[in-house]
Amino acid sequence: MTTLPADYHLHTPLCRHATGEPSALAAVAVARGLPEIGFSDHNPMPRDDFDDWRMRLDQLDGYVDAVARARHDHPTLVVRLGLEVDYLPDHEDWIRDLAARHPWDYFIGSVHYIDRAWDIDNPAKVSRWRNRDPFEVWTLYFERLTQAAASRLFDIIGHADLCKKFGFRPARDWLPLAMPFLDATRAAGAALEINTAGLRKDCAEMYPNPQLLAAAASLGIPITFGSDAHAPGEVGADFDRAVAFARQTGYTHALRFQRRRSTPVPL
């Protein structure tokens, strides 16, 4: 019988595109036999009108309280407190500010924006892809993801090839674009997330793809797992496949986090 890993990528209604309070997601985790979960909703920005898919700053304390309620309601389940934090080159001080506000267990660093106007995974902006060379966009994406890893502000790097979400892929080999990112991730001591949400998107493939995960494994970069759940039914989604994927790539352990310190746990 497979022991499932921790699911460290769970969202809440505060991000304005998810359903299910933390306690409801925790109940599903218990029913599915997950030993541990962690909430990592989208971080607030200094300006609440930055975009329309994250919590407001005045909701941050309420988010922390809701995670604490889930922990109280489900005492047999380990419940961690995290954030999915957008990396933007001029927001490093803001990320440090957020890090000091609560006793976080981990930060997932993610890149959604390749410039201030385009969050490349936003369904409302998918038409922009049709007017761009995918290789160019992927180049910009991995350049920014490399900056994110090199900042050393994050414990985990989330959905590392998110740029494939809508199925717009370069016609030529893109893996060299990702190698500086992997080098920066290894140097920072960060983990790479295996994220099953890609199976539910147009790309129909986990993040990262097999080539990228194999390259990470060859460099000794550790892993975590996340469903990127936006509803209770998605908690732990396809984790049996994700564990098999990790094992096939050579991984024998995943990391668990507490107060931003990691411990390897056998798969």
Strand and helix layout:
Blueprint: E1 7-10, H1 22-31, E2 36-42, H2 60-73, E3 78-86, H3 92-99, E4 106-110, E5 113-115, E6 118-119, H4 134-150, E7 156-157, H5 175-188, E8 191-195, H6 210-218, E9 223-226, H7 239-248, E10 253-258, E11 261-266
Parallel strand pairs: 1-2, 2-3, 3-4, 4-7, 7-8, 8-9
Antiparallel strand pairs: 5-6, 10-11
Describe this structure in words.
It is a single chain. This protein is an alpha/beta fold and 267 residues long. The protein has one domain (7-266): Metal-dependent hydrolases (TIM Barrel). It is built from seven helices and eleven strands. The longest helix has 17 residues, at 134-150. The model has no long low-confidence stretch (mean pLDDT 97).
- Which segments are poorly predicted (pLDDT under 50) over 5 or more consecutive residues? none
Widest sheet: strand ordering: 1-2-3-4-7-8-9
Helices, by number, come to 7
**Which architecture would the CATH scheme give at its second level?**
Alpha-Beta Barrel
Straight-line distance between termini: 11 Å
Mean pLDDT reading: 97
In short:
With 267 residues, the protein is α/β, with parallel strands linked by helices. It has helices at residues 22-31, 60-73, 92-99, 134-150, 175-188, 210-218, 239-248; strands spanning 7-10, 36-42, 78-86, 106-110, 113-115, 118-119, 156-157, 191-195, 223-226, 253-258, 261-266. A 7-stranded parallel sheet has the order 1-2-3-4-7-8-9. It has a two-stranded antiparallel sheet with strand order 5-6.
